[in-house]
């Protein structure tokens, strides 16, 4: 726990000792002080201005300035993303002056906005001219087709002496026309409404464009039709213009004279070529500018975030105007005292301040934050525990045991060393490429697997170990440690399936004998073994949890919890299920045929009856009665004394019967026992008694349900083994029975897919969740309070990419 010349030793069992510190910092060295503390990353500031709004704080103007710079950087990043560029990774440096950076960012933003504006205008003009050129090319054909159609119509009408209709048609051509483009999806509606609005007194022709064109208004590629509308009269013209606006149709002028058409097309083509060259030069200049920004973007972004975080922290400090200094309060680990004081001295020297900062440790009864020093291996296991609840300050940390017990319980359910090797190879890929992968943006599932790579590695190693014990390699038994201890009674092996095998050699040295696999008694044997093994593991882990609660109570000096919680709990659990575990071990060692179900049931129903064939050792009946009485006595032992003792302790403490000097306590205020650290408030005996009643009932019922819950180890282990056996026997071996290469290939593909999809993905997730539940509920509820809060120091290392 303690610090030394080479820094503190990492100790996960108890969180680091913390202290509440007051810093009195001169204003001239405040910025550098906060900056150096941010580099150190071991000081958590408390907000002393919580009642003030962000705009009432001292450094609101500086934060606003930093926010404006951050906005400009976000604008640059958006522009780079649109251009398909990414910021270049660069080493972080603080050599850039913030004032110069602010000016540079403003100039770059103005230049980029101007370039974008010019490019938008040029692109708009270019798109309009492109559409105009298409209209000139297509409308010429439409115009002459329509002219011929109207002329033919006029001749036909004259032949039938319908002079009036012919005159109207002639007027239709003479009066005027409008040309342009309309979106293809709107063309039918446009034609229909145009006909209705003008009562059929127009002539519309459309031509489909083969390729989509960029719309000048929206900038999106749209499939369009070129149209030309012939009309007669000013009213019809106004209606057509309004409909064009309503349908978003772009109108372009058109000349009847062919020479003028060719002349305009030539002019438009030349103008388009000029605009294309200008646009390319503008885009090249914009790309160069964005690349220049990209080289410095990471450094600028970090500096701006750093600046903003420093002033945000300064706003949490109290301003003392008369003394020209700032007052800070916060938590820090005890081992960091020298490092923080060195940082304060360095800030004083670098800012040429005449007065040094003052470091003052405060006495408090507030609960300190919880801080565990973890590395990349232990951090994932710590996160598993923290997901349930952050440890109370300096209570025993379950992650110390979780590092071993979590992968072991997983492996009990996932015992196959072939599957374990596959899992290990997958996680070794993440571990060997962790530097490269940590800097990349991974998917949600991949990111989750990568962050838990060391947990998965331990799970895979333990799975290989339990797989060797179960003697299963993709459900196939192998004689790795020598020959089987069993053999046939004769050379023909005719009675092997009826009379069974006999022991011909020494016992198989490690794990399960391979001859058990495939035998008639395989399932009953494995069921019995794994069920009893699950109970032994469960009782051992629950006992570990209760023993840890003893060390917690001893550490906090809480004798009430030792004598009236730990002792009756350990007696109750072991009087029942500890005794069951003892019977299992004795039965295994002696080879007895005793029925353990019968023994445990009649231990409660008829404790004085003779055991007969179920007796495993001398004096068992008397021992059972003694254990039963002990279990019954443990329940009121847990329930009644503690509430009365707490009440007595409270009365003595606050009625003047146990006054003491403030500094006479053997324990720091922040780790005083919970039973004596209450405020001066009324002791609610009924509330305490009900709480203790609930706790007692929960433990008594939980002792039964938690033990039964560990049987999931047996169930999932059996399910995993049977599934692997089914995939091997009914898929791979069945396919291998055919002489066809196609059938064998299909069988192999199905076997691999089923193994990966079901056994290596779904079963892994299932066993992981069950192991998680066993730790959170069955193990941690015996001792873990988990009502603390994490230590979040002010640190520049924690400035993420998305932080603002």
Task: Please tell me about this protein's structure.
The chain has 22 helices and 13 strands. By secondary structure, the chain is of the alpha+beta class. Strands 1, 2, 9, 10 and 11 form a five-stranded antiparallel beta sheet that branches. A four-stranded antiparallel beta sheet has the order 4-7-3-8, with helices on both faces. Helix 21 runs antiparallel to helix 22. 29% of the residues are buried.
Would you summarize the structure shown here?
This protein has 804 residues and is α+β, with helices and mostly antiparallel strands. 60% of the residues lie in helices and 8% in strands.
Describe the sheet with the most strands.
5 strands, antiparallel
Rg: 42 Å
Number of DSSP helices?
A: 22
Unreliable spans are: 1-10, 161-174, 657-679
Shape: extended
Share in helix: 55-70%
Derived structural class: alpha+beta
- Strand elements, count: 13
Could you tell me the strand content as a percent range? Answer: 5-15%
Overall pLDDT: 87
Query: End-to-end span in angstroms?
Result: 36 Å
List the keywords.
13 strands, extended, alpha+beta, disordered N terminus, 804 residues, four-stranded antiparallel beta sheet
């Amino acid at each position: 726990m303690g610090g030394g010349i080479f820094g503190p030793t990492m100790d996960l069992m108890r969180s680091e000792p913390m202290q509440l510190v007051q810093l009195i910092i001169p204003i001239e060295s405040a910025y550098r002080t906060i900056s150096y503390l941010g580099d150190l990353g071991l000081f958590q500031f408390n907000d002393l201005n919580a009642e003030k709004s962000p705009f009432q704080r001292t450094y609101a103007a500086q934060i606003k300035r930093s926010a404006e710079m951050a906005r400009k950087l976000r604008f640059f990043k958006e522009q780079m993303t649109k251009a398909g560029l990414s910021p270049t990774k660069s080493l972080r440096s603080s050599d850039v002056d913030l004032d110069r950076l602010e000016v540079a960012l403003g100039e770059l933003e103005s230049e980029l906005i101007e370039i974008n504006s010019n490019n938008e205008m040029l692109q708009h003009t270019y798109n309009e001219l492109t559409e105009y050129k298409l209209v000139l090319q297509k409308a010429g054909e439409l115009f002459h087709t329509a002219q011929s159609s109207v002329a033919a119509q006029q001749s036909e009408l004259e032949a039938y002496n319908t002079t009036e209709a012919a005159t109207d048609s002639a007027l239709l051509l003479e009066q005027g026309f409008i040309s342009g483009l309309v979106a293809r999806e709107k063309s039918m509606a446009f034609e229909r409404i145009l006909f209705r609005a003008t009562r059929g007194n127009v002539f519309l022709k459309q031509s489909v464009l083969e390729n989509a064109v960029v719309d000048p208004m929206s900038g999106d590629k749209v499939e369009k039709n070129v149209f030309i509308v012939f009309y007669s009269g000013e009213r019809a013209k106004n209606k057509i213009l309004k409909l064009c606006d309503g349908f978003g149709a772009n109108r372009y002028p058109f000349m009847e004279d062919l020479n003028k058409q060719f002349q305009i097309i030539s002019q438009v083509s030349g103008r388009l070529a000029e605009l294309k060259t200008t646009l390319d030069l503008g885009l090249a200049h914009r790309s160069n500018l964005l690349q220049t920004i990209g080289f410095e973007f990471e450094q600028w972004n970090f500096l701006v975030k750093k600046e903003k975080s420093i002033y945000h922290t300064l706003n949490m400090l109290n301003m003392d105007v008369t003394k020209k200094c700032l007052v800070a309060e916060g938590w820090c680990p005890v081992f960091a005292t020298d490092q923080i004081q060195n940082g304060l001295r360095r800030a004083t020297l670098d800012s040429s301040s005449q007065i040094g900062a003052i470091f003052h440790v405060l006495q408090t009864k507030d609960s300190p934050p919880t801080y565990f020093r973890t590395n990349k291996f232990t951090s994932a296991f710590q996160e598993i525990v923290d997901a349930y609840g952050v440890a109370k300050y300096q209570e025993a940390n379950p992650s110390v045991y979780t590092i071993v017990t979590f992968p072991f319980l997983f492996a009990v359910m996932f015992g196959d060393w072939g599957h374990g090797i596959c899992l290990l190879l997958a996680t070794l890929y993440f571990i060997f490429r962790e530097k490269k992968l940590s800097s990349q943006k991974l998917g949600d599932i991949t990111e989750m697997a990568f962050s838990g790579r060391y947990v998965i590695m331990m799970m895979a190693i333990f799975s290989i170990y339990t797989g060797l014990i179960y003697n299963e390699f993709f459900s196939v038994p192998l004689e790795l440690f020598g020959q089987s201890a069993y053999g046939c009674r004769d050379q023909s092996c005719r009675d092997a399936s009826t009379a069974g095998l006999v022991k011909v050699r020494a016992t198989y040295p490690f794990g399960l004998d391979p001859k058990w696999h495939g035998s008639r008694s395989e399932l009953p044997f494995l069921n019995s073994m794994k069920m009893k093994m699950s109970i032994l593991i469960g009782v051992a882990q629950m006992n570990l949890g209760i023993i840890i609660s003893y060390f917690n109570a001893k550490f906090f000096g809480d004798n009430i919890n030792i004598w009236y919680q730990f002792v009756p709990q350990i007696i109750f659990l072991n009087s029942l299920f500890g005794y069951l575990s003892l019977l299992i071990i004795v039965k295994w060692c002696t080879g007895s045929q005793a029925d353990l179900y019968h023994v445990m049931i009649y231990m409660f129903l008829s404790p004085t009856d003779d055991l007969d064939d179920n007796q495993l050792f001398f004096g068992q009946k008397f021992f059972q009665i003694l254990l039963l009485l002990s279990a019954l006595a443990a329940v009121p032992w847990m329930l009644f004394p503690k509430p009365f003792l707490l009440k007595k302790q409270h009365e003595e403490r606050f009625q003047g019967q146990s006054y003491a000097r403030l500094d006479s306590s053997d324990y720091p205020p922040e780790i005083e026992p919970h039973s004596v650290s209450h405020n001066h408030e009324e002791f609610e005996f009924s509330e305490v008694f009900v709480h203790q009643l609930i706790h007692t009932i929960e433990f008594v019922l939980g002792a039964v349900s938690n033990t039964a819950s560990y049987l999931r180890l047996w169930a999932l282990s059996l399910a995993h083994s049977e599934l692997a056996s089914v995939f091997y026997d009914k898929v791979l071996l069945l396919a291998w029975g055919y002489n066809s290469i196609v059938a064998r290939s299909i069988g192999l593909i199905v076997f691999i897919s089923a193994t990966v999809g079901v056994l290596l993905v779904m079963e892994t997730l299932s066993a992981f969740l069950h192991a998680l539940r066993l730790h959170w509920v069955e193990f941690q509820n015996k001792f873990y309070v988990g009502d603390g809060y994490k230590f979040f120091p002010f640190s520049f290392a924690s400035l993420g990419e998305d932080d603002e």
